[in-house]
Amino acid sequence: MSREIPITAESIVAWSEAPVATEVDREVVLMSVGRGRCYGLGETGSSVWRRLGSPIRVDDLCRELMLEYHADLDVLVKDVIVLLEQMQQEGLVKVIAE
User: Fold this and answer.
1) Which residue numbers in the chain have pLDDT < 50?
2) Full-prediction pTM beyond 0.70?
3) Candidates 3.30.70, 3.40.630, 1.10.10, 3.10.20; CATH matching 12-94
């Protein structure tokens, strides 16, 4: 597995190569083929995942989510970075630029 790049609000992130994903009752379910694991993302995680189809800056992603969920931006940035780091550890997302 490649070295993990720290994710910050300035990072540009996107899906890793060829993710296996489907929607079940409006929730994204991901499959990590290399690890043989499935992940259900829930409503907010699914919303994050859908936005990663094209490279996006974490701060811009969080601003979009802030409008959708009416959440505090600082809290949102911290929570989204934690989610993205977990996805990165599982090989589901990658950092395009720091």
Assistant:
1) 1
2) yes
3) 1.10.10
